[in-house]
Design goal:
The complex is a heterodimer of chains A (735) and B (110).
Chain A: H1 3-8, E1 12-18, H2 24-32, E2 36-40, E3 47-55, E4 58-64, H3 76-88, E5 92-98, H4 102-114, E6 119-124, H5 126-131, E7 135-136, H6 138-144, E8 150-152, H7 161-172, H8 187-201, H9 204-209, H10 212-220, H11 227-231, H12 236-253, H13 258-277, E9 278-279, H14 288-295, H15 298-319, H16 321-345, H17 350-368, H18 370-387, H19 389-402, H20 411-416, H21 421-427, H22 434-443, H23 453-463, H24 468-493, E10 504-507, H25 515-549, H26 561-569, H27 581-592, H28 596-606, H29 621-647, H30 663-672, H31 675-687, H32 692-702, H33 704-731
Parallel strand pairs in A: 1-4, 1-5, 5-6, 6-8
Antiparallel strand pairs in A: 2-3, 3-4, 7-9
Helix pairs in contact in A: 4-13, 6-13, 8-10, 8-12, 15-18, 15-19, 15-29, 16-17, 16-29, 17-25, 18-25, 21-32, 23-24, 23-30, 23-31, 25-32, 26-27, 27-28, 28-30, 31-33, 32-33
Chain B: E1 7-9, E2 18-24, H1 29-36, E3 44-49, E4 56-60, E5 63-67, H2 69-72, E6 75-81, H3 94-109
Antiparallel strand pairs in B: 1-6, 2-3, 2-6, 3-4, 4-5
Classes of the chains: A alpha/beta (735), B alpha+beta (110).
């Protein structure tokens, strides 16, 4: 049975709620193991995790709600969590609470209880609390909160998970009585709440849809996004008018705002509970503060962070490369051999051979090539995140990033963009606000990724051999300048309604990341990538293969549909100086992968074959497998060597030598382009539509509309800048 | 809120100072968010780091919060411990200013 099918037959649903950094992911992993699925909430850019576990006969579905500090609709995450709890009414809600930070964490628990949720409290990281000298009386805590089950857990070690499942089971199956919890507010508030409650009671649509006391309170807390739904019900308009009147009366006595008065009252209650149940007589000062004193100092924190980013960048690009080579060698070598041997044995027609070797295997290779990169990225970003370091990095980088309207954390995806835009776009997940996430993702492709470098190298070597290095640096700089410019434009125009959210984050205590959580998170996200983005990349590379081979039996590339389409496109590039079918053809294949720009040019200008017709020796599966294994070992050793090299100083941002290019291509290019057109061409390659993998990642994260928007704006920007560069270069006397 | 207490904006508090929150001088979603993170009246706040041009680093109810200065300006507090903001800024003006002050002091003495 597949996971999705099993989820439908689950006996009951349990939701996980909790503050960010309370260890919700650990609890989720401890409960479900590998029986989980990572996706997005429908129509949202917020990650949704779902999983399953078995308890005795019962199959239990677990939904991991986004980590939130409260259930007010302040952020998208909170709205999602609240709506899920109100609409789906899960049979149990596990409130994951950081035992070291009880007071702040209990605020959310209180809101869950006020929402009438069937709460089980998981007192997580109880070992750390004990180590710090905090003694928590779980029974007293349970009693203070209306008798909800309280289970001490150490999720990273799997401690207390069974007891938690047991408690959840009892609550979900109704063996445990519903907690009788009610927090009483000041008399004037209570009067208005009960007044509104009677109105809600009178309206069946509202009575059925929401817990009445909760809805009454939400009206007083000015939760505007509920208003529309309320207005749609028969008694809705009257209720809203009454609520408005009640608010007016209350505001006279609570000038600071009724919502703030309610929050204050909740914290007053929580403070009393914590005083009662926590013995803090032996608490020492948190060692985190001493480390923070160093890391948040800009003179230490910023260089350190740049160093860390240099390391991550190097790891993502360099260390994953041997594995990339291995995947490539395995696919083009043994696997192609097996496939063609199989096809020969089956007497398959020639076009199937072509499709398999040039379309399918190449396409699969293009998808698999991202796995080593993404795996290293997720592992390291995960480690930075889980250890608590990322929040400190955001703290020191905030001032710099705020210039272009971005959050301090956005620095990480931007730097990763120099390696590859795909992992960089996935790295935007670390940002909290959807606005920041989208804005960052739109700017990331302007960072020149490593696949564009070969194009710069070949063109600059052909036309400006003496200034190649300086020119390549200028192209990187141009990308950054464009990102700053577009950042300013987008935050003014696109997100003008939403100003940069004020910088307000929690610096979680430093913790050792759990390898199990890192590994599971990495594996689940890679699976999601293969399923969602992988199909789109494969499709695009098949489409290009099809276009280059049709009409069937076409001799020269120029006469294929691909050549004709490129010719039709060529006039568009006339103003930039490179309006030939050859140039536009190279750009079209560059859309599939930027690496392909040069190989297409070689094929077109010099007549080299794009993927050489592969002649395979007779198949020997055992020998092949052995070879694959040996190569994998060698790749791992090479990755290890590079890792060591990374940790020792010695900076080489660019590969030492240019990719091997024959002078034939350089000569052909010099004939085909004028210097000013060549310059415009590289600028266009720098800025134009991100490759299909990047678009697939954007679509996966932000939906089709934003992926299309990214493609259109970037191509437009690239065209304008390329035209400007072409004419500018001619003005200063470049041919 | 009485006028007898010496209140000042949180942004004027200094590193190492402990203050008590009096009120938020604004409302709306951001004010509510601050309150939900534990910044409600009568809460003790420790200022772990207050450096110009950086967010402020606070200790609130066992958690560490980084807070934009623009926001801190709208949070009214009163001193519990530590020097009052009206006193000269000893040791917190950066090494340049400290050096200059030392020189000036030397000159008056001589």
């Amino acid at each position: 049975m597949t996971l999705t099918a099993a989820v439908k037959t689950a006996e009951y649903t349990v939701a996980l709620a909790g503050n960010p950094n309370a260890g919700k992911t650990s609890i989720f992993n401890a409960l479900t193991g590998t029986h989980q699925h990572v996706g997005n909430w429908p129509g949202k850019t917020v990650e949704r995790k779902e999983g399953l576990y078995r308890r005795g006969e019962a199959l239990v579905k677990v939904v991991d709600l986004p980590g939130t500090y409260s259930l007010t609709a302040y952020s998208e995450e909170e709205r999602i969590a609240r709506d899920f709890l109100v609409r789906e009414r899960p049979q149990a809600v596990v409130a994951v609470v950081d035992a070291c930070n009880l007071e702040r964490n209990l605020y959310l628990v209180l809101q869950l209880l006020e929402l009438d949720a069937q709460v089980v409290l998981a007192l997580n990281m109880s070992d750390l609390a004990a180590a710090r000298g905090l003694q928590i009386d779980t029974e007293a805590l349970s009693a203070s909160l209306g008798g909800i089950p309280v289970v001490a857990t150490v999720a990273a070690q799997g401690e207390g998970i069974e007891a938690l499942q047991e408690a959840v089971h009892r609550v979900a199956t109704g063996q445990e009585r519903k907690p009788a919890f009610r927090l009483n507010y000041s008399a004037d508030l209570e009067t208005e709440i009960s007044h509104l409650q009677t109105l809600i009671q009178a309206d069946p649509a509202l009575r059925e849809g929401y817990p009445t006391r909760w809805l009454a309170m939400k009206l007083l807390e000015r939760e505007f996004d509920l208003h529309e739904r309320i207005r749609a019900t028969p008694g809705g308009a009257r209720l809203l008018a009454e609520a408005e009147a009640a608010l007016e009366r209350l505001t006279q006595r609570h000038p600071e705002g009724v919502d703030l008065a309610i929050a204050e009252h909740r914290y007053k209650f929580i403070h009393e509970v914590v005083e009662r149940v926590v013995d803090r007589s032996e608490v020492g000062r948190s060692p985190s503060d001493h480390v923070d004193a160093l890391l948040t100092n800009p003179w230490i924190g910023i260089p350190l962070f740049l160093g860390v980013m240099y390391l991550v960048f190097g790891l993502v690009v360099d260390v994953s490369e041997p594995f990339l080579t291995w995947i490539d060698a395995t696919l083009t070598g043994p696997v192609s051999g097996w496939v063609s041997a199989l096809l020969v044995a089956l007497h398959a027609p020639a076009w199937i051979h072509e499709l398999a070797s040039k379309g399918l295997i190449a396409g699969v290779g293009a998808v698999l090539a991202f796995i080593p990169v993404l795996a290293t990225l997720y592992l390291f970003i995960g480690a930075l995140e889980d250890s608590g370091y990322m929040a400190r990095a955001a703290f020191v980088m905030d001032r710099m990033m705020s210039v272009i309207g971005l959050h301090g954390k956005a620095f990480v995806p931007m730097v990763l963009g120099f390696g590859c835009s795909v992992p960089a776009i996935y790295a935007t997940r670390t940002l909290e606000h959807p606005r920041d996430r989208l804005l960052t993702a739109l700017l990331v492709p302007l960072m020149s990724c490593s696949a564009r470098l070969p194009v710069y190298v070949v063109i600059t070597l052909a036309f400006f051999p003496g200034h190649a290095r300086a020119l390549i640096w200028s192209l990187y700089a141009l990308g950054i300048v464009m990102a700053i410019f577009m950042g300013l434009v987008f935050s003014r125009l696109l997100f003008s309604g939403q100003s940069r959210p004020v910088f307000l984050i929690e610096l979680p205590p430093y913790r050792l990341p759990s390898p199990r959580n890192l590994w599971l998170g990495t594996w689940m996200r890679i699976r999601a990538f293969l399923r969602q983005a992988g199909t789109m990349i494969l499709g695009a590379s098949l489409a290009v293969w099809l276009l280059t081979s049709l009409p069937w039996g076409v001799g020269r590339l120029e006469q294929s549909y691909f050549g004709r389409a490129s010719a039709a496109l060529a006039p568009v590039f006339e103003p930039a100086g490179f309006g030939t079918w050859e140039a536009s053809g190279a750009l079209v294949t560059g859309f599939v992968a930027k690496e392909m720009v040069i190989s297409t040019m070689a094929q077109i200008y010099v007549g080299e074959t794009l993927h050489g017709p592969s002649q395979h020796p007779p198949v020997n599966v055992a020998q092949d497998l052995q070879e694959i294994a040996v190569n994998l070992l060698q790749a791992s050793a090479e990755a290890g060597r590079r890792l060591l090299e990374m940790l020792t100083p010695g900076i080489a941002l660019f590969p030492a030598q240019a990719p091997a290019t024959d002078s034939a291509l350089l000569r052909a290019l010099r004939e085909a382009f004028t210097p000013s057109a060549a310059l415009a061409f590289v600028v266009f390659v720098l800025l134009y539509v991100p490759c299909v993998a990047t678009l697939a990642a954007m679509r996966h994260e932000f939906g089709t509309r934003w992926a299309l928007f990214a493609a259109v704006y970037q191509t437009g920007l690239a065209w304008i800048v390329a035209v400007a560069v072409h004419h500018g270069a001619r003005l200063v006397g470049l041919g | 809120m009485s006028d007898s207490v010496k209140s000042f904006p949180l942004s004027d508090a200094r590193t190492g100072q402990t203050v008590e929150l009096i009120s938020l001088t604004f409302n709306g979603p951001t004010a509510l968010r601050l309150a939900e993170l534990g910044l409600v009246p009568h809460t003790e706040v420790q200022v772990l780091r207050a450096r110009p041009g950086q967010p402020m680093l606070l200790s609130v109810r066992e958690s560490r919060l980084a807070l934009d200065r623009r926001l801190a300006r709208k949070v009214l507090v009163q001193a519990v411990t530590g020097p009052l903001p009206a006193e000269p800024r000893a040791g917190r003006g950066g090494w340049m200013r400290r050096l200059r002050r030392r020189r000036r002091r030397g000159r008056t003495r001589g």
